[in-house]
Structures are given as C-alpha cells and as structure tokens.
Specification:
The complex is a heterodimer of chains A (about 270) and B (about 190).
Chain A (H helix, E strand, L loop, with lengths): L1 E9 L3 H13 L2 E6 L2 H10 L4 E5 L7 H11 L5 E5 L4 H9 L4 E4 L4 H33 L8 H14 L15 H11 L7 E5 L5 H9 E2 L11 E2 L1 H4 L4 E5 L6 H12 L11
Parallel strand pairs in A: 1-2, 1-3, 3-4, 4-5, 6-9
Antiparallel strand pairs in A: 7-8
Helix pairs in contact in A: 2-3, 6-7
Chain B lengths: L2 E7 L4 H15 L2 E4 L10 E2 L4 E3 H13 L7 E8 L3 E2 L8 E3 L5 E5 L14 H19 L18 H6 L6 H10 L6
Parallel strand pairs in B: 1-2, 1-5, 4-6, 5-8
Antiparallel strand pairs in B: 3-4, 7-8
Helix pairs in contact in B: 1-3
The chains are: A alpha/beta (about 270), B alpha/beta (about 190).
The structure holds zinc ion (2 copies).
One zinc ion binds next to helix 3 of chain B.
Chain lengths: ~270, ~190
Amino acid sequence: MRGDVHILIVDDEAVMRDSLSAWLMEDGYEVEAVGDGAQALQRVREERWDVLLVDLKMPGMDGIEVLEKVKGYNEEIPVIIMTAYATVDSAVEAMKKGAYDYIVKPFNPEEIGLAIRKIIAYQDLVKENLYLRQELERKYQFKDIIGKSHKMQEVFALVKTVAKSNSTILIEGESGTGKELVARAIHNSSLRNEGPFVAVNCAALPENLLESELFGHERGAFTGAVSTKKGRFELANKGTLFLDEIGDISPKTQVDLLRVLEKFPAGRGDSLN
Amino acid sequence: MKWIYILPIGLVNPATLKYVAEEIPLKLNYRCKIMESIGEPSYAFEPKRGQYSSAKILREILNKAQAHPVSEDLIKILGIVDLDLCTPILTFVFGEAQLGGKAALISLRRLHQEYYGLPPNPPLLLKRAVKEALHELGHTFGLTHCLDPKCVMYFSNSVKNIDTKSDKFCDSCSILLSEKKPKVTE
Ligand SMILES: [Zn+2]
Ligand SMILES: [Zn+2]
C-alpha cells in the first residue's frame, strides 16, 4: 500500500532496528535498517529515501553528525532523530541542524506513524502546490487566450520574456487577432500587474480630444475644458498603458506621442509601456 | 485439513476464547482449535516497562507451533493474553504478528472498558477481540495496514479506532487475502 515509500533506519541496537522495521513493514512501508552512520551515508548516496529515522546516541558517528552529513549531501531528505535519552539541548541542536522531528523512544504507537505520514503528506503537498501554482500562473496570464498551436506557444513565450522589461512594446497584427489580450497578458505577467491596465482606443477619438485624453489638460485650456483632467498616461502610472489602433492616429499626435515615450527610458521603475 | 490454532497464554476467560474461535472461521475460512493454556509468560516481563515483551511471547508461540504434533495441520497460530504488551520502540501494542509468517498474538488488556476506568462491557470486549484477532491474522497472511477506516486491517492505535472499524476485510484486502492464502486442497 505504501510500498513506494522508502524508509532507512539507522540504529546501533539490533533490537530497536528489528522492532521498528517490523512495525513499519506492517504499516506497508519499504524499510531497510543499518547499524551505523557510515553505512547510512553509503545507502543515502546509493538510493532515494523518503525518510531517515536516525538514532541519536550511536558509537562513532552520532545521530547529529549523520543528520549534518545527510543534509550536506541532500538537504531535501527528511530526517527524524529518535532517542531514549531526550534532553532539551540535544533536541534544540537536532532541530537547528534541520531535523524534521525529534522523537523519544519508546514511541506512542501513533506518534512515529503520524510523523512519517506527515512527511509523506507534506512532500505530496509540495509537489501538488508547485503544479497548481504553475497551472494557476499559466491560466491567469493567458486565461483569455486560447491557443495550442506552435505559433501561439511562441507568442506566449515572447509575452513572458517582454513582460519582464519596462520598454515600450509594439504589438502588430490584423484587427481581431487579439492584440489587446496579448497586451493584458503582458501586463498580468509583469511586475506592474498590481497597477492599472489602461486602454485607449486611438481610432475612436477625434484628434483634439485624443491629445487631452492622453496627456490631460488644465481647466480652461481649451473650449469645453471645464475642469482639470488627468491624462491616460498619468492614470496608467505604475501600470500599463495600452494604445490601441495606434496606426490610425494623425502624424501630429504621433510626434507628440513619440516625444512622451522618449521621456520614459526603459528601466525606470515607474515607466510605461 | 488445516486449522488456525488458538493458544491461551496465562489466564484468559474461556468464553472469550470460544467466541473468538467461532468468529474467525466466518471471515477467514479456516476453523479454529483451542489449545491447552500455557503458563504466565514471566520470561517476557520487562521490569523497566512494567509490561510484557510481545516479541518474546511471539517467539514462544512460534516454538509451540513448531512442536509436534500440531505442526502438521497448523496453518496459523494465534496467542491470546490478558496482559499489557509492549515492544522496544512502542509504548504499547494491541498485538503483534509475523508479517507473512505463522504466529500472531493479541492482548485483551486494553480492550477491556475497565482499563479506561469505565464499567465492564462484555459484548464490546468480544467484538474488539475478534477484530484484533482478525487484524493480526491478516498480517500473517501477508496483509499490511489498510487505509480504509472501516476495514479490519486499518491500523488502530486506540480502542476508538477499533470500535470504528468493522470486523470485515475490505474488498481490496479480501482480494489480496484470497491471492495470498494457500488453496485449501488438503
Ligand atoms: Zn497491524
Ligand atoms: Zn482493507
């Protein structure tokens, strides 16, 4: 049942090795027992172990030394220190050196089983979390973009790469191919994803209004400017500004835009793209 | 024809033995023979623990199994004791068995309600005894612990767990059991 869980017991007392092995085998674990630290380290190098149960007091290399060497070899292996002579000092030392648990012999029947089951559950959880996090990231960033083709995968990869920069990014493509979705994906994947995503459809606004839309205006700057208005650039501060249909704007606004964009050199913390 | 032998160790209530001997065949398809009681296991007493070593008693049961004339028709042997058992690494055990071997042992000590300061409950004691007997015998047939809390092979570290589980082997344990049990042809 738990035959895929490998446990290595390290104890100098044969009686303890036998008793613990027998009990863990009844619980369905695959168990091997060795009598000293040197053999333990050899077995750790030779095979993959899910849990090590190491006796604290052993002649030669003691449990703490085994713990240190095992951790030096592979930090991931959970090591449980067990002892019949528990002291606060040794417990503190064991925990500080990375022991997963410190158990006093003889164990309450469920104590050791519980400790091992906790480790197995934890390892499963770590694996599951990693998977879920990756899945979540993938879904969140590209949740609105459906694309399994090789070309779309390339786009996703590119989105991830450019999202890390603060440069101005030009997204080209036919109308309706999802440029805004790509822009949103870039925003969501970027360090600015806590900030606003501001979209402006440049083609939908007359030229004079577009200017004020983008750059804002002071009250009374022109007819109809009844109050001070923040421009979209300002609104998008610490976020992302998406200028849609930029090819449709007049040459004059394009020049103004270029002037603004040049003021936002790549790499500035709060710059825009 | 092979039998499961039941060996009383020290003082054990004969009615309990009889009940267990009658219940086991309903689940394991082997009939039981109750042997003559052997004396108190003073050799297994652990003065430091104030309990009895289950491993030492198990060894004694195995000796008994290998002794003539029972060895011929003996498939398994189950020792029953009314003393508290321990192992070098566990503070107590309800029983112990040789995984895939011949001998098993159960203790009634912690199955009595009186052990927990409660009034006696004989039917409950009998039910618990049968479950633990089947559990340890299951180990001798090579079964390990089952994750189904209703299955008799579920690991019990308290009487509460024993009471929660049934006296039945779940479907998957039953299949394993039928694969592991030798065909009864003799
Ligand atoms: Zn068991
Ligand atoms: Zn089962």
